[in-house]
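Lecture 7 notes: from sequence to structure.

We start with a single chain of 136 residues. Read the sequence below before looking at the structure.
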Amino acid sequence: MKLSQTLRRKLAAIATRERILSLLSIDEVEYFSMQFETGLLYLSLIIKDATIRQYIGTSPQYWKWWNNQWLLRDEQLVHRAEFSNYVIDDAGNLCYEQCYYSHYHDAHRLANEIFPNSIVLNDSYAAMVQFLIDDK
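Now the structure, written as tokens:
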């Protein structure tokens, strides 16, 4: 049976998450809480206006984008961890999985490295404008 590209990607994402849970000795609640809280902190760092931040933060497009960015970093850590139980961070320091994971998923760092694409922003702005129109 041939699997669709979408299904293969979902299965790979689940396998990556399971490997991360094992590497970090955490459960899914901790994992998803960390992902969610970091996503909110990241938004507060890149979007200063609270109203705009609220609309982006409730946008399904934002969370799809954020989850994808998170998964990309998880995949990189899993790849590095396949070769050893430690990694070298950007400063050249020896770092075990937990500290590297925290460093690599740090909202302050991500605010300097990634930015939501226009689809995410346009979707959120459209919702905000519609709310303002409906509110009048």
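The mean pLDDT is 83. Keep this in mind for problem set 3.
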